[in-house]
Model the fold of this input.
Amino acid sequence: MQLNAVARLFYSPRLLLSTRQPGSLSSVPSCGLHATATLNDAGTATKSVPEKPKRPMNTYIRFAQSIRSSLASANPQASPTDISKLAAVKWQSLDQATKAKLEEEYKREQAVWLQKNAKYLSQLTDAQKEEIKLERQQRNEGKVKREQKRMLKELGRPKRPMNAYLRFCAQNKPAPGLSKEDNKMQMKNLGMQWKRLPEAERERYTKEAEAEMKRYQEEMKVWEDKMLASENVIAVRKKNVLLPPSPASVKAKKGGIPVVDSAPVAKPKKPTSAARP
Done:
């Protein structure tokens, strides 16, 4: 478990096996409902869902893409966001004749895509449809997690410190720019070094981690009270609660701000073998 955590710390691949594999599938797009990959008995990637026809760009996106390169050349210091804003201004001032022409192009491509997509959907098996549904669900869940992470970062949520082992690895991390295999080997070596580490050295990392965790708990308590007082209850009530509300949050409750009870809900006990029919 610790080795996996370290691997994520120093090597974080952003592509899932279900969307891209090295080699023959490296050109498969990772967005949209495109072909997904599975491993056969030989260990090679094979397509399990055929590639879906690409939906045509709408009128505005079509126009923005057509002028993006010229806007970037004319404004070399502009960020991608600035370029998008400039494209929006250009779109607002575009004459109706040009907009109508772009709309006609979009409608023609949309009609062709609807036919191709209908044929594509009719050829899918029930298993492939279920796989696409699962992939869409995983993407949506990932989007929710990213949005929640972004929200917590904007709200200034304290960052959880590393444990003793991860602190050891961070201080002895391998050189950057390693290949995936070399990085895995480095992580394996760090794990063996940790096991051979003298007890006194390991205790030093443990005490440092405990001190950081104590500081983190204090910061979390202050942050949670601040969130409760500012009515950002959702920020601390979805698997983020570290400590129960302090007296400061009780005062916030008296002031009319709803405070959700942070006491953990007891899970139902599993029936023993004797109680089973």
Q: What stands out?
A: The radius of gyration is 27 Å. The CA atoms of residues 117 and 251 lie 58 Å apart.
